[in-house]
Request: fold
Amino acid sequence: MRCMLHNFAGNIEMYGILDAIASGPIEALTSENSTMVGIGMSMEGIEKNPIVYNLMSEMAFQHKKVDVKAWIKLYIAWRYGRSIPEIRDAWSILYHTIYNCTDGAYDKNRDVIVAFPDVSPSFISLPRERQALAKYANELFLKIIDAYQLKDVDGVTSLSQKFLDLVEDMDTLLACHDGFLLGQWLESAKHLAQNEEEEKQFEWNARTQITMWFDNTEDEASLLRDYESVEKGEDFKLQKWRGWIKLTNYWQNSWKVFPVESDGNALSVSRSLYNKYLRSQS
Reply:
């Protein structure tokens, strides 16, 4: 079997290598002494990057390499109902950048804003804006580290506040879509329960999966912390950066209810945050 493992733990980073998907299965099938009998997908999360899974699914029925540029034109018409020049231009950019990423990094969501707090310098549409702000947060974090190493107290204070403001602004952005709500994640887990005991257990599982997993102690972080580096709305990320281990342990075992309905206009919020943080970077 030619198998694709594209996602770890349901991480939400926009990422893929479409050219490899469009050619790899055919190359494996037609290679000398090939014993390949089919293709498969090993998903730890499938709700993100639908174009990757659509193309891989189609490769099961292909006998020659796919022309990705031509295929994307068909994908656009299928996904949006018709072909629009602005959408074609946007997908051309995506195809030549994040959907043909060849940096060799297998784990695409190591953004500092969703990671367990660390002061090491080496710890380095709505999904697109979220991702752009997450990358900006990485740059901001490195500036904080530089100021810290220079013993620049004012610099650390100012940049740290800017970082925390960015976290809150990202929460505002993510709250504009149901798919990024922490409440949706927790309630979907609780919905599977058959009784009150299961409901508590399933909610704890859902909270643990996006924080420390299971082997953490009162003072030591789990070795699998941040395995599912997701970004959800509400105030969890901000608390995470302020409280670290003990607060995370407390949050795993709490029962606070979070909103399950989106609030805000994603386009308006995106424009506002772009002007606030990214216009000077472009």
